[in-house]
Write a structure and sequence with these properties.
This protein has 18 helices and no strands. The chain has helices spanning about 10-15, 20-35, 40-55, 55-70, 75-85, 90-105, 110-115, 120, 130-135, 140-150, 160-170, 175, 190-215, 235-250, 260, 270-280, 285-315, 320-335. Helix 16 (about 270-280) runs antiparallel to helix 17. The longest helix has about 30 residues, at about 285-315.
């Protein structure tokens, strides 16, 4: 990554020669940071994208870092590009779809969710019935990804999952050697958001099992999580999988009550409406499952939101939230009587994290 930028004049001269893609990136960064000039995001975007088009790997790394740290919002940029144009040409739609496809293939479902209203523009061939069939049969398709991305209003933070997991694995390394015995993992080690999700999984699993038995439904997998999955925190990809499994289970029971197929599935992005629909369902197992599906997504989102905040705090060198979080875990271990020799965490002894 670029450590030091040239002067504005030197960068402009290098760009005029037009041969070095790194020069375009450096000039773009200068405009982005407002170094020796007025900050100009439009010019910054032009030169950085030009460097990327010329094959500059550093430009890709810079763009990714800008989005990952929250300095730039991918969905906001896509929305701005669409709304600022009086009409969208086929060529522009094609270029934007390439950007959207990049996010889909990277499984950054949160970014797709954030531009849900524009997805028909990029995927006019999308077929919801095909998407439902693909999800029920575990087929990895564009249709399945779109339905999953728009099946709830609570998955907008499902982005940069692999990067976050790599970060948390390193951050929690000091605690891996201090794994308590299963029976020792209790209320002192679980935050409220984790407790709520754990109870929600119990509720939705019990309701789904009863529904499948009562209506002779081909049961889909709904993963149970044990104590080890909670310590010291969730694996984020497991939460994505759990949300996907929850949707698959929902789709598997869609035909047993008209309210599910005609109303519930058409309002998946409106939690209040979903709960109102649930109030009118008389089968208690179905009602519990549908309510729990809403809660499942809300609870997963709460954990994903906190994880993304922690990750972005680190990427922006804001280490205080990390210090407080790690010290809280160490304190909770001692609170259940598990002795350890970890010193109080501070800036100078945070776990070694390699990007």
């Amino acid at each position: 990554m670029i450590k030091k930028l040239p002067s504005l004049a030197d960068a402009q001269r290098a760009v005029c020669r037009g041969k070095d893609p790194l020069a375009f990136l450096q000039l773009g960064m200068i405009y982005s940071q407002g170094k020796e000039t007025t900050r100009d995001d439009m010019l910054a975007r032009y030169f950085i994208r030009k460097a990327l088009d010329m094959g500059c790997q550093e430009a890709r790394e810079y763009i990714d870092k800008e989005y990952e740290t929250g300095k730039k919002d991918w969905a906001a940029e896509i929305t701005c590009l669409i709304e600022s144009a009086s009409s969208i040409s086929k060529e522009k739609t094609f270029r934007l779809r390439a950007k959207v496809e990049e996010e889909r293939k990277a499984r950054r479902y949160g970014n797709l969710s954030s531009i849900r209203s524009f997805l028909p523009l990029f995927y006019p061939e999308y077929n919801r019935e095909k998407a439902i069939d693909d999800i029920l049969n575990c087929r990895d398709t564009i249709d399945a990804d779109i339905l999953y991305s728009t099946c709830t209003n609570d998955n907008k933070d499902e982005i940069y999952i692999p990067q976050q997991e790599a970060f948390f694995k390193q951050m929690y390394a000091p605690f891996e050697a201090i794994r308590p015995k299963n029976e020792e993992i209790g209320a002192h080690l679980l935050g409220d958001d984790v407790k709520e999700l754990a109870q929600c999984i119990v509720n939705i699993t019990a309701a789904y099992d009863a529904i499948c038995n009562n209506y002779d439904i081909d049961k889909k997998e709904l993963r149970a999580l044990d104590e080890w999955d909670y310590y010291p925190t969730f694996k984020l990809s497991d939460l994505v999988l759990l949300r996907q499994q929850g949707l698959r289970c929902l789709l598997s029971i869609k035909d047993i009550d008209p309210a599910i197929n005609d109303k519930y599935l058409n309002n998946l992005c409106d939690d209040r409406t979903l709960l109102e629909i649930c109030e009118k369902i008389t089968d208690q197992d179905i009602q519990l499952f549908l309510i729990s599906f809403v809660e499942l997504n809300i609870d997963i989102d709460a954990i994903e939101t906190n994880a993304l905040k922690m990750y972005r705090a680190y990427k922006t060198y804001n280490f205080l939230p990390l210090i407080e979080h790690l010290n809280a875990i160490a304190h909770n271990l001692k609170a259940i009587g598990l002795k350890h020799t970890l010193p109080p965490f501070a800036i100078n002894n945070l776990p070694l994290i390699k990007s």
